[in-house]
Amino acid sequence: MGRSMLAALGGLRGLRLGRLFRGPPGAHGEAATRPIAPLWPRGLPRYCSGRAASGSEPQGPAGKVHRVPAEYKPSQFDKKILVWTGRFKATEDIPPRIPPEMIDAARNKARVKACYIMIGLTIIACFAVIVSAKRAAERHESLTSWNLAKKAKWREEAALAAQAKAK
C-alpha cells in the first residue's frame, strides 16, 4: 500500500483486527465507521468463543449449556485410570468422549500415585531385608558359611562319583 492509500484509509490505526475502520475525513454515516472483518492467516485453527449459535445444545438439569471439546474416546484402561485418580466416581459416570487434556492429567496423576506406591513398597522391602538379616545373624548364618557348605557338598559328590567310576 502506498502512502496515499494509507492516508485515504485513515492511517495504520484503521487496519487493526476487530477495530472500527474510520473512513476519510468528511465521510458521513455508515461510510465513516464500519467494522472490519478480522483476517485469519490460512492454516491456523479458529476457535469458537463457546457460545452456542443455535438452541440445539444439550442442557443439563440446571439449564446450563455444557460444551466440552471432547475428541478422545477413552479405553477401558483409561476409564480405570480416570476412576482411580478420582476424576469420576464410577466407570458409568464417564462420558463416551472426553477432552484429551483430561486423560493426560489423569495419566500424570496415576504415574505419580504409582511412583509413590513403588517408593512405599521399596521402603517396606528394605525393612524386611534388615529384619531377615538380623535373624540370620542370630542363627550365625552368613553367605560365607553357606558358600563353604555348598562347596564341601560338591567335593563329596565329586569324590563319590570318582569312586563309582573307579569300580
Q: What is the alpha-carbon Rg in Å?
A: 38 Å
Uncertain runs with pLDDT below 50, 5 residues or more?
14-20
The percent of residues in helical segments reads 40-55%
> How many DSSP-defined strands?
2
Describe the structure using short key phrases.
167 residues; mainly alpha; two-stranded antiparallel sheet
Task: Please tell me about this protein's structure.
This protein is mainly alpha-helical. Among the domains are: 3-35, no CATH class; 76-127, no CATH class. The chain is 47% helix and 4% strand. It is built from 4 helices and 2 strands; from the N terminus they run αββααα. It has helices spanning 3-9, 76-84, 100-138, 143-166, and strands at residues 20-22, 33-35. Helix 2 packs across helix 3. The model is unreliable at 14-20 (pLDDT under 50).
Note the topology.
Layout: H1 3-9, E1 20-22, E2 33-35, H2 76-84, H3 100-138, H4 143-166
Antiparallel strand pairs: 1-2
Helix pairs in contact: 2-3
What's a concise summary of this model?
The chain has helices at residues 3-9, 76-84, 100-138, 143-166, and strands at 20-22, 33-35. It is mostly helical and 167 residues long. Mean pLDDT is 77; it is low at 14-20.
